[in-house]
Amino acid sequence: MKKLLVILLFAFVFVGCKDKDDDVDADLGMNAVGNYTMTSLGKGGVNLDLPFQGLSGTIKSTRVNATTAFMIIETNDNGTIENMGEGEINLSKSGEKIILKENGTEIGDIEGNTLTLNIADDDGINIKIQAKK
Fold it and tell me: What is the distance between the alpha carbons of residues 118 and 83, in angstroms, rounded to a whole number?
C-alpha cells in the first residue's frame, strides 16, 4: 500500500509541475499588446531617429486572439496625425522573437520591448520602422 501511495504522490507531483511560462508564451497576442513609440523611421534610404523636428510616431497593438494582433501605425507631424496603416497581424514564435506576418508575408518582429517593421508603401518604396514599448 505504501508503494502505491508513493507512486501516486510522484505521479501527482510530475503532472502538477507544468511550466506556467508555456501558457504565457503560447498567447503571443497578449505578449504583443502595447503602445510602441517610434525610435527610427527609414524610407527610400533616408533614416531618421525619432522624434525629429516635430515628427514622431506610434504603433498601437491590441490582442485579437492568441496568435493575432490588430496594429495601427500613426505618425504625428507637428500635430498632424496620419494613419500609415492598420490591420490584423498573424503572430508566431521563433526563438525569443515574435514574428509578424500579414497575408502570409513576414513584415517584422518583436524582440523584448522592440518592434521592427519592414513594409512597403503604396508606391513599393521600403519603409523600416523601429519602436519601443
Answer: 17
C-beta separation of 57 from 73 below 8 A: yes
Write the pLDDT tens digit of every residue in 56-79.
999 999 999 999 999 999 999 999
21-132 maps to CATH 2.60.40 = no
Of 131, 132, 122, nearest in space to 84 by CA: 122
Residue with cell 500613426: 74
pTM for the structure as a whole: 0.79
- Looking at every residue in the chain, the average pLDDT score rounds to 85
At position 70, the amino acid (one-letter code) is F
Q: Phi and psi for 93 in degrees, rounded to 5?
A: -110, 135
Q: Are 55 and 89 contacting, i.e. CB atoms less than 8 angstroms apart?
A: no
Domain range annotation of the chain: 21-132
CA distances 60 to 9, 46, 84, 125, 131, Å, are 47, 24, 12, 23, 10
Place of cell 508503494: 3
Measured on CA atoms in the order 77, 80, 86, 89, is the torsion positive or negative?
positive
